Amino acid sequence: MMQPRSRYRKEGALDHDEILSFVEGRYVSAPEAMWRLSEFNLSHKSYIVVRLAVHLPQQQPIVYQDGQEAQAIERAALRKTTLTSWFELNKNDPSVHNISYSDIPQYYVFYKSTINGKKRQRGGQNVIGRLSVVSILDTERCYLRMLLLRRSGAVSFDDILTVNGLRCITFQQACQEYGLLRVEHVICGFGEVEDVPDLWVKHQVSLCEDFVHLYSEQTGPHYALADIEELLTSYNLSLQKLHLTTIDLPASVLERANFDVVEEQAKANSYTMQLNSEQRNVVEILLSAVYNNAADTLKCYFLDGPAGTGKTFVYSTLLHTIRGRDDDVIPVASTGIAATLLIGGRTAHFVFKIPIDLNATSTCNLKPNTKEADMLLKTKLIVWDEAPMTHVHAFLAVDRLLQDPTKCKELFGGKVILQGGDFC
Questions:
Q1: Which residues, 6+ apart, have CB-to-CB distance to 381 below 8 Å?
Q2: Contact, 108 vs 130, CB < 8 A?
Q3: What are the tens digits of pLDDT across the range 127-162?
Q4: Sign of the four-CA dihedral 235, 247, 244, 211
Q5: Less Cβ around it within 10 Å: N or C end of the chain?
Q6: CA separation (Å) from 36 to 1, 27, 46?
Q7: In this predicted model, what pLDDT tens digit does every residue of 204-251 receive, in sequence order?
Q8: How far is the CA of 6 from the CAs of 22, 28, 132, in angstroms?
Q9: Residue 42 — very low, low, confident or very high, per pLDDT cuts 50/70/90?
Q10: Coil, strand, or helix at residue 331?
């Protein structure tokens, strides 16, 4: 059933705009019509979730409008949060000392206007208190949250910091005094492991196992450290910052370490045998462009075709063929789901470090003289799936990025690039 929208002129004549009715009209299916005619419930909520504040002393979040910062600060100084209200409850009501912060919403209601706690009259069994997840990068807030989940009866931040009569300097130290932390289980990329080299020595055999199997006992640890550093770069860390031995392996070597040349050659032959005439023509054109150094060779291609026409199969054939020749290729996609269909694929934003906020002059955040930049310089082909889903400003940023390491002012730095997708 379509419920059209009609418009009336001032004189009362009906002005029926079919296009507007189609755009603004509302379709009601038979099941929905039956449900509404029967007056069944449109929604149901079994539990109430109360969000509880987790903030450091005098660091509660403040919402303000431009130009009213001072007034917002004054209001925040007078206004309580759920955390400070919990402190007040513990001061004034000894009966709540055995109730943890996360359980207090079952017994008290916090009103938004004042955030004062009032004893709940009924319905507490259907209320859940939730402390927002805090990243370990926000170190002190993270450890404060850990303490709030386990402490009860606290009347102030100083009370939370006090363990066995001694006041700790930090919330992390308080967690350690309570035995809530085990140094070996803290990820060095986020926490504060005191001796990362010792952690490496303890677990070196397990961390190097796969690389030793692929290479040798002598070179396996080098590849393991290089792989660890590649992961650390995502968090602005390095082996040097963690006082580990720095390994200088090109990014292309690390990328190729995940692929066996002989196996790639076998897959390339198998895939090539299954190509139809149009797919084979595309593969031959791209391989000719990759390995033809003539100045007039076309470098930028677009593979157009609706879903189910075999675009991904063409990409896979090219990837196996080039890797089977011990060369580098970078497969990317505009979305994470599409990237999973490409062997070794990642999102274009991750590989090229494309910024989130884009404009016509945006530049990628990939630093020169890094392993990632070295990988871009040495790659033979870039495969970019679902390209039509990417904004033109992203392509302009990647174009500028590739022109820098290659010292080439051609489109995409003269790199052979295959973009694919459809406009359906």
A1: 286, 290, 318, 322, 329, 330, 415, 416, 417, 418
A2: no
A3: 888 998 888 778 899 999 999 998 888 999 999 999
A4: positive
A5: C
A6: 13, 14, 21
A7: 888 888 878 877 787 788 888 887 877 776 566 778 877 887 766 554
A8: 11, 17, 47
A9: confident
A10: strand
DSSP helix/strand/coil, 418: strand
131, β-bridge pairs: 52
Measured distance CA(290)–CA(323) in Å, rounded: 12
Residue 118 token pair: 């009032």
Whether pTM exceeds 0.90: no
Q: Tokens 């803290």, residue? A: 186
Q: How much is the CA Rg of the chain, to the nearest whole Å?
A: 30
Residue 253, burial from CB neighbour count under 10 angstroms (0-12, 13-18, 19+): middle
SS3 letters across 15-79: ECCHHHHHHHCEECCHHHHHHHHCCCCCCCCCCEEEEECCCCCCCCCCCCCCCCHHHHHHHHHHC
Q: Residues 6 or more apart from 139 whose CB is under 8 A from it?
A: 172, 191, 192
**Cβ partners under 8 Å of residue 316, min gap 6:** 271, 342, 343
Phi-psi label, residue 420: left if phi above 0, alpha if psi -120 to 50, beta otherwise:
beta
For tokens 């002059």, the residue is 361
Domains of the chain and CATH, by start: 48-178 (no CATH), 196-253 (no CATH), 261-421 (3.40.50.300)
Own/partner long-range contacts of 410-415 (Cβ < 8 Å, ≥24 apart): 410/299, 411/299, 411/300, 412/299, 412/300, 412/382, 414/299, 415/299, 415/376, 415/379, 415/381, 415/382
Question: Whole-angstrom Cα distance, residue 348 to residue 358?
Answer: 14
For residue 146, give every residue at least 6 positions away whose Cβ sits within 8 Å of its Cβ, in sequence order, or none.
171, 175, 180
**Interatomic CA distance for residues 397 and 25, integer angstroms:** 40
Name the residue among 16, 49, 190, 229 with its Cα closest to residue 126. Answer: 49
Residue 122 to residue 35: CA distance in whole angstroms: 31
Residue type, position 68, single letter: Q
